[in-house]
Design brief:
The chain is of the alpha+beta class. It has 6 helices and 10 strands; from the N terminus they run αββαββββαβαβαβαβ.
């Protein structure tokens, strides 16, 4: 009898204990972790964004670096009833995860006055990726910003290119050059293919490939950089079968902006390669 009573009491206690376990409200609709960086245990996604954007990443106590690319932004909140892991543990968790992927620390603030945070970067599958983790409320929550660096891919058909050239005499392309680099990236292949299709469909068309930059840095350096980028565009088209006599290259640097260079959006518009009908 005593044994049966003990079993009954134990079962009742386990039931009550089960009812007292923290509840999981679940993530917001359509939210998901960034594939390379799973969340901390017992955290839920309360806000999720996936968009092409610019992000000003802290790079020191009083400095930052602004980059453009495909952004994943996540707000995490600890499930009800669980003890917070603390800001340091959250930062170390992501810092160690990035290092295991071959990445490095850009900036960490883990002690003293001021906002605790960690900024890291890595390269994966040919992409430069920046990571920013920002704990809040003593580790009750944190935000995670991940940016795959690159300009917005352009989805345009050969017929749309032809229409723009017939109408305006020029067409702006936004190719994915790295900062201070002139090498085209694999993701620019579809745009190059469309230009080749345009040229093959219009045997008499002659184009000047003209590259532009924003006004960040020295004007002469930007001019030389734009010349190399224009030449890279011409070389890619020639390799794809366009006759070299139908193409020329010109670098204009920061001389002919489309928009104001006072903000990130304007500077992104100014970093372009134009096809100009001759």
């Amino acid at each position: 009898m005593k044994t049966r009573s003990l079993v009954t009491c134990l079962a009742a206690w386990l039931l009550l204990a089960g009812l007292a376990l923290p509840s999981a409200a679940g993530d917001v609709t359509n939210a998901k972790d960034y594939p390379l960086l799973p969340r901390m245990p017992r955290f839920e996604i309360t806000h999720y964004e996936y968009s092409h954007d610019t992000v000003a990443f802290p790079s020191g106590p009083e400095s930052n670096v602004t980059l453009e690319g495909q952004k994943t932004f996540l707000d995490y909140r600890l499930g009800q009833g669980w003890p917070p892991p603390g800001s340091l543990r959250i930062i170390r968790n992501y810092g160690n995860a990035v290092k295991k992927l071959g990445g490095e620390v850009v900036y960490e603030k883990v002690a003293g006055e001021g906002t605790r945070q960690g900024v890291y970067k890595l390269t994966n599958d040919g992409k430069e990726i920046w990571v920013w983790v920002l704990p809040v409320d003593q580790g009750q929550g944190y935000s995670l910003t991940v940016l795959e660096v690159g300009e917005m891919p352009q989805d345009v058909t050969a017929s749309e290119m032809q229409h723009a050239l017939d109408k305006d005499g020029r067409l702006a392309l936004y190719l994915n050059f790295d900062t201070d680099k002139s090498e085209l990236k694999p993701e620019d292949g579809p745009v190059i293919d469309k230009v080749v299709e345009l040229m093959k469909g219009n045997p008499s068309l002659v184009l000047s490939v003209e590259a532009h930059t924003d006004n960040q840095g020295e004007a002469q350096k930007n001019k030389l950089l734009s010349e190399r980028r224009a030449q890279a565009g011409v070389k890619a088209l020639v390799r794809a079968g366009v006759a070299p006599e139908r193409l020329s290259a010109k670098g204009l640097g920061q001389e002919a902006p489309l928009a104001s260079n006072d903000d990130d959006e304007g500077r992104a518009q100014n970093r372009r390669v134009e096809l100009v009908k001759q």
